[in-house]
Specification:
The chain is α+β, with helices and mostly antiparallel strands. It has two domains: about 240 residues, Glutamine Phosphoribosylpyrophosphate, subunit 1, domain 1 (4-Layer Sandwich), CATH 3.60.20; about 180 residues, Rossmann fold (3-Layer(aba) Sandwich), CATH 3.40.50. Strands 3-2-4-1-10-9-11 form a seven-stranded antiparallel sheet. The protein has a six-stranded antiparallel sheet with strand order 5-6-7-8-12-13, covered by helices on one side. Helix 8 crosses helix 9. The two termini are about 20 Å apart. The structure holds iron/sulfur cluster. The site of iron/sulfur cluster has 12 residues, from helix 15.
């Protein structure tokens, strides 16, 4: 999972892209980068957070009125600088691209690019595959008289070749800025605008929080399979190039997106409260009567408050969080992840001592974090601990860009709820049911593949095996 920003304006855009990337830093902290266009491309990227990459470098030193930014959380490919985005290719026109998502047919696509289009893909990062595919589809057109319809035709051909989940933003030098997503619309991408003294500025981003920070008006989310092209005269064109059944990643609402983002016209915080309230039905059936509901800070606050409200039980902050430790979920290495979890949470003994505690987290993936938290709460004197997952049991790997793609790591893929309770050392474990979650999204078709194994793009056993191997390779 990554975060992307693209700005097509009239003035120097790099400082605004920098600010936008800081707003979506939670989407990845492996690497960051910005590219701008001012006659030629100006690129700065590296490993770490945005502020690490730009330490001692003024973003304004990257000139140009068009630019792209990226924060990366590596799911496929290495953690190295070579796979950091944006990526640039010099023909046709000069193209720069950032993307968020995962290409699932990378082996066959790489072969096709090599054998049929004579292009060598020299990184493991799947954005190169999308970029080179788009480049080779564009070069089939009349480049001297490139029309908007040619751009959309090239996107359609790219969508036909590239399987998986992706939202991408691309600068086509001298022509404009293009944003598009996969035919199922799995990953989010929103468009906004603002007016500067020199004219209209268009902004594309993974999340609407970028617009809040930049003072933009949110226009809308891209629809599944849609492409939006801002031409060199700042005219906006859009076309649904290749649409299939919508399957938006429900995990954006559960965990990934910031609570103050609006995706598909829904505020993420409100969605989490709704999920918490819905959990109360399942919780009541267990007959458990907790004294307090606490959250695993900070992504679970809204679930916990919704559950507490619906149960009529007080919500308390029972775990303190060290805000200077990053998101453990998006850290690839298990040892580092466990250290981060230890550093991150500390129980507040006076709140939990002698109490029957329901502790709510967004999900249970590997179970190691959950068990650590149960042990901490027990040590702090909690009398009874019910571990509550706001999402249903995760039973299948995500092949679309969230780092749970190695099946052997997923606890609910191998154990039933009682065995999980035993492993977590909890008194009870309560999960959201998949039926209840789906019921909350009756009017927004979502992807639930990590809970059901029903992949919207389809995925053969062979494809899953190859993706798992790639994933393991990138963890080494
Ligand atoms: S498998 Fe799960 S995490 Fe992956 S895109 Fe689908 S809902 Fe999101």
């Amino acid at each position: 999972m990554c975060g992307i920003v693209g700005i097509y304006g009239k003035d120097t855009v790099a400082p605004s892209i920098f600010d936008g990337l800081v707003a979506i830093q939670h989407r990845g902290h492996d690497s960051a980068g910005i590219v701008t266009l001012d006659g030629s491309f100006h690129l700065k990227k590296g490993l770490g957070h945005v502020t690490d990459v730009f330490r001692g470098v003024d973003p304004a030193s990257l000139p140009g009125h068009a630019g792209l930014g990226h924060v990366r959380y590596a799911t496929i490919g290495s953690n190295g600088e070579i796979d950091a985005q944006p990526m640039v290719v010099n023909y046709p026109f000069g193209l720069a691209m950032v993307h968020n998502g995962n290409v699932i047919n990378f082996a066959s696509l790489r072969r096709w690019l090599h054998d049929e289009r004579h292009r060598l893909v020299d990184t493991d990062n799947d954005v190169s595959l999308i970029l080179y595919t788009l480049a080779s589809e564009l070069e089939q057109r009349d480049l001297k008289h490139l029309e908007v319809s040619d751009v959309f035709d090239a996107v359609r051909a790219t969508q036909d070749r590239v399987e998986g989940a992706y939202s991408a933003i691309c600068i086509i030098a001298g022509q404009g800025m293009l944003a598009f997503c996969d035919p199922h619309g799995i990953r989010p991408i929103v468009i906004g605008k603002k007016f500067s003294e020199h004219g209209i500025v268009y902004v594309f981003a993974s999340e609407s929080v970028v617009f809040d920070l930049l003072g933009c008006q949110r226009i809308r989310d891209l629809q599944p399979g849609e492409a939006v092209f801002v031409d060199r005269h700042h005219h906006l064109h859009s076309s649904v190039c290749r649409r299939k059944a919508q399957a938006f990643c429900v995990f954006e609402y559960i965990y990934f997106a910031r609570e103050d983002s609006v995706i598909h016209d829904r505020l993420v915080a409100t969605e989490r409260v709704r999920m918490g309230r819905r959990l109360a039905d399942t919780f009541r059936k267990t007959g458990i009567e907790p004294d307090i509901v606490i959250d695993v800070p900070s992504s679970s606050y809204f679930f916990a408050s919704g559950l507490a409200e619906a149960l009529g039980v007080p919500y308390r902050r029972g775990l303190a969080k060290n805000n200077h430790v990053g998101r453990s979920f998006i850290t690839q290495n298990q040892t580092v992840r466990e250290t981060m979890v230890r550093q991150k949470h500390n129980p507040i003994p006076d709140v939990v001592r002698g109490k029957k505690v329901a502790v709510v987290d967004d999900s249970i993936v590997r179970g190691t974090t959950s068990r650590h938290l149960v042990r901490l709460l027990r040590k702090a004197g909690a009398k009874e601990i019910t571990f509550v997952s706001a999402s249903p049991p995760i039973t299948h790997p995500c092949i679309y860009g969230i780092d749970m793609s190695v099946k052997r790591e997923i606890i609910a893929a191998h154990y039933d709820i009682d065995q999980i309770r035993h492993y977590l050392e909890a008194d009870a474990v309560v999960y959201q049911t998949l039926e209840d979650l789906k019921d909350l999204y009756r009017d927004l078709p979502c992807c639930y593949a990590c809970f059901s194994g029903e992949y919207p793009t389809g995925a053969s056993e062979e494809a899953l095996r190859i993706i798992e191997e790639e994933k393991l390779k990138s963890k080494r």
